[in-house]
Amino acid sequence: MKTVYSYVKPYWLPALFAFILMLTELFIELVQPLIIAKIIDDGIVVNDIEAIKNWGIVLVFLAIVALIAGIINSYFAAHVAHSFGFDLRNALFSKIQAFTMATYLKFPTSGLITRLTNDVTQVQNVLFMSLRILVRAPLSASLSLVMAFIINPKIALFLLIGAPIVVGFLYFMVKKGITYFAQVQWRLDRVNRVLQECLQAIRLVKAYMRNEYESSRFQQVANSLKLDTTRALRIMEFIMPALLLIMNLSLLAVIWFGSIEVSTGNAQVGELVAIINYAMRVTGNFSMFAFIIIAIARAKASSDRMKEVLLVDGNGLEVEKSESELKNDNLIEEIGTVRFEKVSFTYPNTELLVLSDISFEIKQGEKLAIMGETGSGKTTLLNLLPRFYEPTSGKIFVNGRNVLDWQLEELRAMIGFVPQKSLLFTGSIQENLKWGKQDAIFSEVRLAAEQAQIHETVETFPNKYDTRVGQKGVNLSGGQKQRLSIARALVRKSRILVLDDSTSALDVKTEAALWDALEEENTTMFVVTQKVRTAKTMDKILLLHDGKVEAYGTHDELLQISERYRQIVESQQEQVGEEG
Ligand SMILES: Nc1ncnc2c1ncn2[C@@H]1O[C@H](COP(=O)(O)OP(=O)(O)OP(=O)(O)O)[C@@H](O)[C@H]1O
User: Fold this and answer.
1) Cα 10 to ligand 1 centre (Å)
2) Which of 316, 350, 380 is the last residue of a domain?
3) In angstroms, rounded to a whole number, what is the distance separating the alpha carbons of residues 207 and 255?
4) Residue 104: which domain range?
5) Do 312 and 438 fall within a single domain?
6) Which ligand 1 atom sits nearest the alpha carbon of residue 376?
7) Is residue 427 located within the same domain as residue 295?
8) Of 70, 196, 217, 371, which is most buried with the most CB atoms under 10 A?
């Protein structure tokens, strides 16, 4: 629990205040029965109105103090709990952002979302309850017991009849609760995952008319969540009345034995009333304690899940190298060059060699087309460049320096990356384009948009560059999204530009205009493409097959040396012929 609850530390002072106020409430709670006993024994029994009045005033005064203490305690408890929740969420978010791609693979997205939302809330609630009642309930119960013993040990002894059973019940509840609630949180992950998948693929679901299927899939996971939650809560449903029954039986025994003691003159009425009062407090506080124990069990399951994230360290995080570790080599000569030397790669936790013995070099300003059938390793190869993953063997050099020896930030600042799937964020077009370079001025944004052939389209939007995209914004076509993604990368003016099949949705004319515009830039380019027409315009082509280099060279060279390339060319010529 340490890693999660260490986030309470900065709030120790308000937490201490809350604790002291809680003790004040507790103290008053414990003194009240004594005063009632005084009112009965010194007032009612001897008919002393003055004593009743005086003790009555003290009672009311203490009740008001307890009320005020309770209100201020709630205020501090809420402040501590919510600040803690805020810090914890931020810490989790930062940690997740620093994950290596390999670590992301270990945590399903839905699981991370639940951890950041529901799990944090569970722990936050328990912290709030702790500052309000967690310590108070058992303390109040045990001190009430002590007070009862001080007043009359013989009668109070009857309160202990059920104690061993109560302790046994609580132990059982905590043990089962932790296991069951861990299962509940896991089920919540599954519900989130199905929901996320369905919403992301909503068009597909509609197009395939899979609404009913998706609904039943959702019902299945939601039902499992319901069953597991019910199972977990059932322990409480069973144990709470059982606890109360035991406690009330003890209370009955106290009343029975106490009335005998009073009638034989061994005890006073006031004493018995006070003990009954304390006994009821023991009962009430214990049931409250049992309720919190359930919440703690749930929070323990949640905090264990968050701990998994917070404890990710070392190889699981992207860590910047210290200046002293960096190689001070001469980078000027090879600026903009990229060299792969016998690079092989296997995804973490898998056996399959996805890239095998890849070697090639491109110079500054050269444009490399990467071709190959689906699954041949094109995206994987590109992912190694900004060090999303590290090669299993072999070396990759950027500007003549091994990518492992670069400061991560510097390396990535040099690379403009356009992933296969165009993703835009909620916000204006301009905000999206400036996303990779916050300090870009409008003329840079506009130039990038012109190069990416999207400027004219943006000009037709109602608010031009201030038009909102994403949820509640304009709906963009696939090609428009692709061009905006390209423009976003171009705004950064990176030395190296990586386009992972990012022009697939562009028509021939637009694509040609895009390459023309990029021709003017002295940018080294990696372009994954399926189209020979595109590949032909590049300086070199790297043809991958099954993760190996099938052929490497210019279009003409590949026509000479690679049968597979010739087949691709022929098949596309046939297509063009058929289309024509
Ligand atoms: N995260 C991953 N974990 C394990 N294996 C993966 C992962 N991503 C991709 N692979 C595997 O690596 C191989 C190469 O995938 P990659 O995405 O690089 O191919 P690609 O040539 O870009 O394909 P496409 O043209 O369809 O995008 C495939 O066999 C794929 O199953």
Assistant:
1) 45
2) 316
3) 72
4) 87-316
5) no
6) 21
7) no
8) 371
CA-proximal residue: ligand 1, atom 7 (nearest): 347
Q: How far is the CA of 374 from the centre of ligand 1 (A)?
A: 8
Tokens of 427: 């916000």
How far does residue 424's CA lie from ligand 1's centre (Å)?
23
Q: Which protein residue's CA is at the shortest distance from atom 6 of ligand 1?
A: 347
406 inside domain: no
Best mutation site among 104, 379, 382, 546 for ligand 1 pocket (most ligand atoms within 8 Å of CB): 379
Q: What is the pLDDT of residue 1?
A: 43
Q: Can you give the CATH number for the domain in which 468 is found?
A: 3.40.50.300
For residue 179, is it within any domain? yes
DSSP 480: H
Same-domain pairing of 161 and 287:
yes
Instruction: Please give the tally of structural domains in the chain.
Output: 2
Asked whether the beta carbons of 524 and 362 are under 8 A apart, the reply is yes
DSSP-derived secondary structure letter, 402: E
Mean pLDDT of 560-570: 87
CA dist list (Å): 342 to 362, 381, 386, 544: 15, 12, 18, 14
Q: Could you tell me if the ipTM is greater than 0.90?
A: yes
Tens-place pLDDT, residues 34-74: 888 888 888 887 888 888 888 889 889 998 998 999 899 88
Cα(564) to centroid of ligand 1, in Å? 20
Q: Which residue has the tokens 């914004």?
A: 473
Beta strands in 403-445 (DSSP E): 415-418, 427-428
Query: Does one domain contain both 248 and 104?
Result: yes
Q: Which of 290, 316, 342 is the last residue of a domain?
A: 316
Distance in Å, CA 543 to ligand 1 centroid: 16
The structure tokens 């110079």 sit at 363
Distance 378 CA to ligand 1 centre (A): 8
pLDDT digits (tens, 9 = 90+) for 216-271: 888 999 999 899 988 888 876 777 777 778 878 888 888 888 888 888 888 788 88
- Encoded tokens for 480: 């428009």
Q: How confident is the model at residue 580 (pLDDT cuts 50, 70, 90)?
A: very low
